Amino acid sequence: MSTITILGAGNMTRGIATRALAGGYDVQILARDESEAGTLANELTGSVSTGAFSTPIAGDVVVLALPYDAALSVAGELRDALNGKVVVDITNPVDFATFDRLVTPDDSSAAQEIQKAIPAAKVVKAFNTTFAGTLVAGAVDGQKLDVLVAADDAEAKAAVVSLVEAGGMRALDAGPLKRAHQLEGVGFLHMALQGQLGNTWSTGVKVVGA
Amino acid sequence: MSTITILGAGNMTRGIATRALAGGYDVQILARDESEAGTLANELTGSVSTGAFSTPIAGDVVVLALPYDAALSVAGELRDALNGKVVVDITNPVDFATFDRLVTPDDSSAAQEIQKAIPAAKVVKAFNTTFAGTLVAGAVDGQKLDVLVAADDAEAKAAVVSLVEAGGMRALDAGPLKRAHQLEGVGFLHMALQGQLGNTWSTGVKVVGA
């Protein structure tokens, strides 16, 4: 069976791991503090192993479930181990001090910056518009979650689309990796709208009517 | 009763006029070719007047229902007549030759470029993520349309929010006018996804679950 490795042990790891396990994947959770990976694993049902960032990566697909700055630095740190891997960037590089801008260059995106840090990996943008709670629930408002996926490598994109669909969600192909710029705009907006939507962080961005 | 002036006589004018009329507004349609405004007006039910771009603008809210390049040039052409008006930019400045980029600067947006051309008007970004057919229908997939609205001027934004709500849609406040950069990213993605969604152009982008 395929294994998904997730780096980080926070809410987004809980969400993505829940969907991957529901889809029949084995999950490996690696965290800076291995005990946090263990604590999260104890909440989950299915085939879950844990380790530290130094533990050999078991999955062909590796999700960076970390805030943008940490995702970028951990990707660089594990650069050799990520060679040839499908690396999923889920981040929204919001300037949390102002909540009024993204910290990435105007002509780039978090996904493209991470790709530059690990040029021998195949970076895929996904899961940046789906909140953790909706991933755990596996649905929003009784509807399938939409997961927008952008990547340059077709096989890498297909691997993430398979994960999305196995987990009971709908994958929408947003195009090449540079389209992450627009996807991160969607993620930023979705976060910025929470105040007027009751701050539940349980909403989903969907393309409805098709 | 309030009057909405719409510049252009294409599909988006049909959609926005239909919603405005449903909301009890008077609608004035002005087109380069006045006869096209008349033809469209004949399809609509309610208080509709027509004219050319040189006809005095009746509305306090003026919608530029034109492709981006035309919207920018017509705004400049009517600069004096638009002084003090609420001007609604609905465009998606997609490079239609490649469908792979936006033609606006990386650090700007169509709305901001139009604001520069008419500095004494109050530009509001709205309706760039809602397709014409769904505006005519007034709903998508049995749900209210979401209209994302961005503007710097609070009264101008409120006028557009009132129009949206009167027309039976949900307004979401996306923030200041510069957030048009992200809204235009949403519009671009929504258009780019049509191929894999059956090319019906009858879908809607919604925040569901709230």
What does this structure look like?
- The structure is a homodimer of 210-residue chains.
- By secondary structure, the first copy, chain A, is α/β, with parallel strands linked by helices.
- Chain A has a single domain, classed as NAD(P)-binding Rossmann-like Domain (Rossmann fold).
- Helices cover 34% and strands 21% of the residues of chain A.
- Chain A contains seven helices and nine strands; from the N terminus they run βαβαββαβαβαβαβαβ.
- The first copy, chain A, has an eight-stranded mixed sheet, sandwiched between helices.
- The mean pLDDT of chain A is 97.
- At the A-B interface, strand 8, helix 7 and strand 9 of A face strand 8, helix 7 and strand 9 of B.
- Strand 9 of chain A pairs antiparallel with strand 9 of chain B.
In round numbers, the mean pLDDT of chain A is 97
Largest interface, with Cβ-Cβ < 8 Å?
A: A-B, 37 and 37 residues
CATH architecture of chain A: 3-Layer(aba) Sandwich
Uncertain regions spanning at least 5 consecutive residues of chain A: none
**Rounded radius of gyration of chain A (Å):** 16 Å
What would you give as the CATH superfamily of chain A?
NAD(P)-binding Rossmann-like Domain
CATH class of chain A: Alpha Beta
What is the fold-level CATH name, i.e. the topology of chain A? Rossmann fold
The percentage helix of chain A is 25-40%
Biggest sheet, spatial arrangement of strands of chain A: 3-2-1-4-5-6-7-8
The first-to-last residue Cα distance of chain A is 32 Å
Strand content of chain A: 15-25%
Query: Major beta sheet of chain A, specifics?
Result: 8 strands, mixed
**Structure summary, number of beta strands of chain A:** 9
Shape of chain A: globular
Quaternary form = homodimer
GO molecular function, one term (chains A, B): oxidoreductase activity
Domain Pyrroline-5-carboxylate reductase catalytic N-terminal (chains A, B): 3-93
Pfam families (chains A, B): F420_oxidored
Protein name (chains A, B): NADPH-dependent F420 reductase
